[in-house]
Design brief:
single chain, 289 residues, mainly alpha, 3-stranded mixed beta sheet, 53% helix
Length: 289
């Protein structure tokens, strides 16, 4: 997070008007998103910098490939690391610390704080307030996200990824990331075989993903996948550790107006899946509703 300022051109006779604002994300969703983007989905930079540290310090009897690559950190291991790093201030990573550590909200007088969950409405409000010409509200970024994510895995990081996992697993992790983020319907399995994944071009993979996006149904329906993935992830965390996460994020809840104990993280009754699909289990594809 960073401070964002909007400044409009004025005549010398006018006073300068600055509007400072920031957008924040629901804290539990942000915690999961950082894990999915930086550790679950292929990212050899974060695997080396943080994944190997997590496996070395928060896994019993780690394998040699895991210690060497840091590529297979689980969500429970990640949460234990985040809790420990916040308590001890050791090996902290900016991707995983609470939002208030970035934005210095106690010392910066922001005019507005928006939520990413209501980005379209909040941006429309800010554009109306600032009266900036030629700027329009946000559009769908799903196609752009697919292209950028795929380029990272199938071009920029491809050879380094190969030293830690097959390209099929890398593609599967990327595909599940798009399920978790509600970009592609979870009813759409990865459309390449293990053999095809080793040689498929970036262009062909992106083409397949965009075709899948176009038949994935309404965005509103896919958005529910985000909540399902969040519920599944935190269901794997012992209750006492969830309480520690809540305590760690207390300031974010208080400063930004989010609920500290949402049903998705602290269900009143044990969460039950309505199908056999797991967002994080790489041993299975979609098994049907």
């Amino acid at each position: 997070m960073r401070k964002l300022g909007i400044h409009r051109e004025i005549n010398q006779s006018e006073e300068t008007e600055d509007v400072s604002f920031l957008f924040v994300r629901e804290p539990y969703s942000r915690l999961l998103s950082a894990y999915v983007d930086k550790l679950f989905s292929p990212d050899t930079v974060l695997w080396r910098a943080t994944g190997r540290y997590i496996i070395q310090n928060f896994r019993s009897n780690p394998s040699e490939p895991s210690l060497r690559c840091g590529h297979d950190v689980t969500f429970p291991e990640y949460v234990r690391y985040v809790i420990h790093s916040q308590k001890t201030l050791q090996h902290r990573d900016g991707h995983f610390v609470p939002t208030h550590d970035h934005c210095d909200v106690c010392n910066v007088s922001y005019n507005y704080i928006g939520h990413l969950e209501t980005l379209r409405e909040d941006m429309a409000f800010l554009l109306n307030v600032t009266q900036l010409p030629g700027i329009h509200g946000p559009k769908s970024f799903d196609s752009h996200t697919i292209a950028v994510n795929a380029d990272w895995v199938l071009r920029r990081m491809k050879e380094k990824i190969r030293t830690c996992m097959t390209m099929y697993e890398a593609c599967l992790r990327l595909w599940k990331k798009w399920h978790i983020r509600g970009i592609i319907s979870k009813t759409e399995p990865l459309p390449v075989t293990a053999e095809e994944a080793e040689t498929i071009s970036l262009e062909d993979f992106v083409h397949l993903a965009i075709q899948t996006l176009n038949r994935s149904g309404r965005k509103e329906d896919r958005r529910r996948q985000k909540t399902e993935a969040l519920t599944e992830a935190f269901a794997s965390i012992p209750y006492e550790e969830r309480l520690q996460v809540e305590d760690m994020l207390t300031l974010d809840f208080a400063l930004f107006g989010f609920e500290a104990t949402p049903e998705s993280v602290f269900p009143s009754v044990p969460a039950q899946r309505h199908d056999n699909y797991s967002y994080f289990d790489l041993s299975q594809a979609y098994n049907g509703m």
